[in-house]
Amino acid sequence: MYQAILLDVYGTLVHDDEGLVDDVCLQIADLIAVDPSAIRKEWSRLLEAGAEMAYGAGFRTLADLTLGSLAEAVATFGTAVELGRICRKQLHFWRHPPLYDDSQPFLDALKVPVCLVSDIDQDDLAAVLRWHGVAVAAAVTSEEARAYKPRPEPFQLALARLGLGPGDVVHIGNSASSDVAGAAALGIDTAFLDRAGVGLPPGVTATYTAATLTALLPQVSPC
Description:
alpha/beta, Rossmann fold, 2 domains, six-stranded parallel beta sheet, 11 helices
């Protein structure tokens, strides 16, 4: 039996911002007459590349990375847009995302402590926990770890806060790369939360896979 659970937040415990990302791209596309899918593709590429480089002394907050990579993406089309107003709803959502229906029942049923491990900024995660009245044993953000998943620093900080080793915990998340591959690289058992039913890509394997958090209870926190 695991002594604790590491748990991703966005896309796992609460809804992510995919719909608002689409909305941002549509608004910008209307302004600069570019296919919104092209904007989204370039934005995603630059955001991912920026996160890979943002660690240690070179760390940048997610808000900074998000707005900065979007500005770079728009610039590749030879223009510039005032992004503060366009991204306001997305940044607000980060602090007020709805819980998935299975999240609170899952937390209530657990017999072991939970440490959240999220790539969100510190103030945003604190706001989410206040908004939903969620209480957990510990929480780690990329801002505290000065690195983003799948780098080891967030997972290592979570283990340190719990006083446990890699073999004592299981990490649950919805990202094949950030959650499953990142945790597994440290020898941590993983549970892939496949809410969308997309499966894992070739070469990535998880210890457990389920479509809901509550379906994982017998594996991660048996009675």
